[in-house]
Structures are given as structure tokens and as C-alpha cells.
Amino acid sequence: MEDFKRRRVNKGGETPGAFAAFPYDRMAVERFRQAFPRARWNDERRSWFIPGKTGARRFDRWLAHEAEFADIYGDLKGRDAYAFDPITSPYLKVGEDLQIRTPYSKTIVEQLRAIPWARWDDDLRLWHVPFSSYEELRRRWHEIEEAARRNEPEERRRRREAKRNSEEQKAARLRSAERKRRRYPLPPGELPPLGRPVATERYGIVVFTHITGELAEQPAGLADFYSHAAHAGFDHIWGIWRSPTLSELVATWPARHEPGPAEYGRRWWQPALAELRTARRNARSMERRKERRELGRVPPVGR
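Given the sequence above, the corresponding C-alpha cells read:
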């Protein structure tokens, strides 16, 4: 299990305080937020910043208080529970902890993130769950295993075969082709800033690179694909977009307020903090995958 970590910060003109990190647990985060209402999550450092010169000492005291509630027999209880009622599945391997390797599924990710102390191992490409969380894992296992089976390559291939040449598949192909055009209909009088990340209804957070000035017509075969343009009562024009980089997302300040009817009406707005966190996490994962692919193409030394 990961150790709790903290680091003092007080350099130059920086705000004094401490960065604190601990393994994710929903209830522990709620208790932390109650104890440190001024603490703010730093997405780049993947840790909490506690302002104040005494931030580190206060965090240490909070950890000591948390330890009073820790179940020192949790690991042994989990191992006993597993021995009495084990999970038998090709997706689960038992070692120092419980190791779960499945095909990718959003359902699985959501379920495992809700389990206390579960963590993703990016090197081994699997999830680690401590024995102390076994009861929670067993409670969620049916849904996890069902989602894993649905996302096995053979099962996904079977569903694709069943949908081949169906109306649903034709529409999906048209949507995919439209997305590859990297265009989005915009109201002429309310154009987004160029070169800056903004949130959109259809494609999430994007960066508009230029405005073509061409009238945006609904793609043939995709009725109401851009519903805001189809029913606006006036012509829209095409804006060309690209995906934002991680550095651009990190440098983007979130909106102070949730978007209102005007922002939703034009279908682009300044992204909120939750939207930025999701986009940053996805961009970070994409950069890691890109780095692994590039390392795999590097020839061994001496060849």
C-alpha cells in the first residue's frame, strides 16, 4: 500500500504551505476536505496543497488521527474472507494483494475507483486491491466480471458482426467520418477565442485554430447531428478544431461559474474544473501511451 506523503513548499514569493498526497479513498477524501477546507487539489502534482506555514504539521496531526480509525487487522480479515469465500475468475490473480487484469471498460474503471485503496499500476497494466478491501471488491465483482466479458475481443467482434450493415452501424460510420473532419458549427456573432481550450457540446474540450467562414450545412445522413445549428433559426459557420495538448490544459484556468443558458445555447464555453480534470487525465494517459510507443520503436543500443 502506498505511504502518505507530504512536502513543504516556501520558495521565493510562493505561497507557504505543503503538498500532501495519500492513496485514494472516498471517505478519507471527505474527512480531509472537512479538516482542510482551504486545501486545493493540484492536478499537475497529483496532490493536495495545504496553505499556511503550519500546513505540514497540521497534515501530520490529521494522519495520526486517521491512524486511530485504521483497522490494523483489515488485511488479515480480508485474507480470511478470501479463504472462506474466494473469487474464482480468470481476471483475478492473488499475490501480495489482489491483482485484476481485464479488457478496458469504463464500467470497470468506475467500479474499481470506488473501492478503497485500489490503484492502477501503469507498468503492469493492472489494478491492485489490498486484502483489506476484499469485501467491497466482492460486492462489486459481479458487475466488474460481466463488463470484462462484454469487452473481450471475441465478444466485441461477435457484436460487430451482428451489427454489420445495420442502420446503426451506418450512422456510426457517418459520425466517425464527420469527426475526422475536425469541424464544428459556430454562431457568427459569438465566435470562440482561437488558440485557447474551450468546451463544446459534441467534442468536449478542443482548441479552435481558424474559422472558415463557410456556411455549416448538416451532413447528409446525420439528421440533427449538430442539433443546435439545425434548430437555431439562423446560419452557422464552420470552425476548425484540434485536440489540446496537456500543457495547454494545465495552463487553462477553469471558469469561475458554471455555464449558463447563453453558453449552452451557443454550444461552447469556458471549461469548468471537473471538465479540465477529466481532459488533463486523458491527455496525460495519451502522452504516456505515445512515449511507450516511441520507446518501442527505438532500436537496441549497438544495432
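The two ends are 40 Å apart (CA to CA). Try to locate this feature in the C-alpha cell string yourself.
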